[in-house]
Amino acid sequence: MIRMLKFSVTVLLMLLSCFSLNAQTGKVSGSKEDVVLMLSGEEKHGKITEMQTNTVKFIHTGETLVYELKKSDINKITFSSGRVEVISAPAANAGREPVESGRPIEPGLVAILPFRYIAVNEPLQQVTEKGEKLQNDTYVYLSNRDGQYKFQDPNTTNALLYKKGIDGNTIKGYTYDELCRILGAEFVLQGTLSRSVKESVNSSGSSTTKVEGNKRQNDNSNSTTIENQYENEVSLSVFNKQNEKIFANRRTAFLNNEGSYRDALRYMLKRSPIYNK
Fold it and tell me: For this UniProt entry, which residues form the secretion signal (predicted)?
């Protein structure tokens, strides 16, 4: 009986020794593990053994091998104590192509963006075409004069924007200094044409009298014409490569015909700082 009791005690001590040895080899208990969240979104569970300047030493749960993780790849660490330490914050607009991959900025170069064209009940295709026509009209007018400022061909501007996936909607996510780097221009010109159309009805009448012998005959005729009256308001802004607005103006065309916007546009361009005097 005593011999059996001694044997049982010996087995119990051996089991306790095994549990103690297992704990010392670095195997991490699931209830007390550190969680490393990588910038890629991957989670690593285990134990942080050492924090260095640029790396973190880490053991995966159930393993003994020590890994070194780059801090630049880590978003945050949630320690077993509950404390959270942010290592590297995710970059804003991570899905967007870096602007730093743009062109070298050419001093004195002005890039003219496609104009915003705001009109009621006009098809999207026509709105897009009108915006590019306004862009081209502005380029032709400004490039006719030689001076310190040069103007990027609209085809080049639009191709560079297209390569970056920038259109009338996505351009809102870019600052003007970023657009300058993408287009390689020192200045960016942005414009808008807002148009409203009203119908004007004109009526006129005329009367003629014919006399034949003793007979008098009166002929009365009326005519009605419908004419479109356009109200064109043009706004312009110019920004430099430091994202500073250096010019802003707005003008409503004096005349009410469709092409009267040109007068308002040219009036403001002549007074802008990028006009070659």
Answer: 1-23
Domain with CATH 3.40.50.10610 in the chain: 99-204+223-270
- The pLDDT tens digits for 55-102 are 999 998 888 989 999 998 898 999 988 888 888 876 544 445 555 557
Cα distance between residue 40 and residue 68, in whole Å: 17
Q: Is domain 99-204+223-270 classified as CATH 2.170.150.70? A: no
First-to-final CA distance of the chain: 116
Summarize the confidence of residues 109-130 as an average pLDDT.
84
Instruction: Give 36's contacts (C-beta < 8 A, 6+ positions apart).
Output: 43, 44, 45, 46, 48, 56, 58, 69, 74, 77
- What confidence score (pLDDT) does residue 148 get? 95
User: What average pLDDT does the segment 95-120 reach?
Assistant: 81
Q: CA-based angle 137:143:148, to the nearest 5?
A: 145
Instruction: Look at the domain 31-90 and name its fold.
Output: SH3 type barrels. (2.30.30)
Quick one: pLDDT at residue 28? 42
Are 231 and 252 in contact by the 8 Å Cβ rule? The answer is yes
